[in-house]
Design brief:
Length: 275
Amino acid sequence: MVFLVTFFLILSLSFQSHAFVIGEYIATLKAQPNIGSETVTQAMRLDPVEILEDGLWCLVSLPRQHNYKGYIQKSNLIDWQHPKGKSYVVQTKVLSLYDKPGGNFVLSLPFASLVTVLEETKDYYLVATYQGDLYAKKSDLYCIENKPVKANDLIETAKEYLGVPYLWGGVGPSGFDCSGFVWAVVASYGYYLPRDAGPQYYYEKFTPVEQNRLLPGDLVFFSTYKEGPSHVGIYIGNNQFINSASSTGVTIASLKTTYYKTRYLGARRMPFVYQ
């Protein structure tokens, strides 16, 4: 539990220190400062960013993705920061925000977005945005409270995205790459993993697990298009895992197939997931 508390204290403090957020519903970050460059990741509306190099294209880092870096057009950033308040994450595919409870639609946020809650009514939260304080249905948000996550809940959330296509650099909800899928599903419960499969595999807070001791909710890793950890999924039991594969999008696959059996690298257990 000490790890969980420390983990969130660091993140919450870093969010409050950044004065810019993503202004687009989903913004694409590039490897180089031009539109034709390779996509490295995506970020959601209201995601805090730190500007490392300013200009028409800014080099930024994303605190929620362990300071993952990429270039983004300055026009996609808003000069605004999250106020003090309780942090929540979006658990529905799309969160609609209204000018009053049951009122007019104003703004939308994608799955796994971060919001700051200021007040609550019976059925709604008042959340802070760069377009003013707006209302969200309580059932669509999850409070970040350092609490453990049940493996089955994590898996059921992942299954909601079965059939979503693969997208290089995607964190959803309309397209995921493999590590972006894992990142977003876990982020929807308030825990932020490293962005890519390699750093997820080597993350010092995770525990290595032998294949014959796998439990639902463990992360399984493979060496696919390059040497070392290059693909990741979430184990769901019975030698099956859910993943976003380049050929199928989000699907359930078997560890017993020749392709994955011969490329299996290892597994990691997240300390905040329980059975």
